[in-house]
Amino acid sequence: MSSHPRPALAVIGGSGFYDFFDNEATIVEVDTPYGAPSAGIAVGEVEGRPVAFLPRHGKNHEFAPHTLPYRANLWALRALGVRRIFAPCAVGSLRADWGPGTVAVPDQLVDRTSGRPQTYFDGGGIHVSFADPYCEELRAAAIKAESDELHMMHAATMVVVEGPRFSTRAESRWFAAQGWELVNMTGHPEAVLARELEMCYAAVALVTDLDAGLEEGEGVRAVDVFAEFKRNLVPFKELIRRAVAAVDSTETCDKCRVHAEVSLPFELP
């Protein structure tokens, strides 16, 4: 890695999003105190700037949402020099008018997971600010990159469920009744771990299905989710590339830098 620039920008690819670079990339293996990340991290270029790419579920989708090495993934990216992350992901829609092919840039998150290690701070009385879970600067770059082929929504609340099962119809109707628009399985603890490591983070969500409570059919099936994601993968990747290119700064923004006047129990990588 010494012969390559340190990437300050990264993309974490979700289900069906297992590679990113059209040109040559270098695979970097990173050891962390939390074990190995989901896969080796590819370092390539987008518009002449070094960018890291990590397939969230592994190169061959080895990891389910509840078994992902979230802490290792974020730590490994930070150790490589990453300070700003786009996190494309597949989501179900809780609104009938946001059908498959819609892209949303969430501004809020609701955690409905359980049992996942979700912090680096197991001691020391450290509490990070998380009122606004996504970086506004990265959200603006993603919105600026919107595609003619994909319907873009500029804000949404994403509820993150434990998985790996999909929601029941009753759960889906309950989520929708709260005013939440998207349902996902991997957005937490990824977002809060990025904040704890002082990395800007923004989810970019591709709708693959209407959630179970919105239609009377068989409910959500994994085979249909993957097929819909694959159908939109080319324009979705291009949108993420344009978002990366639209980022002005490669440093953590002031709002995502949260450790001022706090003594951490470890040194940041």
How does this structure look, described?
With 269 residues, the protein is of the alpha/beta class. It has helices at residues 70-80, 136-144, 169-177, 187-196, 222-231, 233-246, and strands at residues 9-13, 26-28, 41-46, 49-55, 84-93, 102-104, 108-112, 151-153, 157-161, 182-184, 200-210. Strands 1, 2, 3, 4, 5, 6, 7, 8, 9, 10 and 11 form an 11-stranded mixed beta sheet that branches. Strand 9 (157-161), helix 3 (169-177) and strand 10 form a beta-alpha-beta unit. Helix 1 (70-80) packs parallel to helix 4 (187-196) and helix 2 (136-144) crosses helix 6. The chain is globular.
The overall pLDDT, averaged over residues, is 92
Helix segment count? 6
End-to-end Cα distance? 16 Å
Radius of gyration: 18 Å
Which parts are unreliable, with pLDDT below 50 for 5 consecutive residues or more? none
Helix content: 10-25%
Beta-strand segment tally:
11
What is the 3D shape?
Answer: globular
Q: Major β-sheet, in short?
A: 11 strands, mixed
N-to-C SSE string, H for helix and E for strand: EEEEHEEEHEEHEHEHH
Strand percentage, roughly? 15-25%
The structural class is: alpha/beta
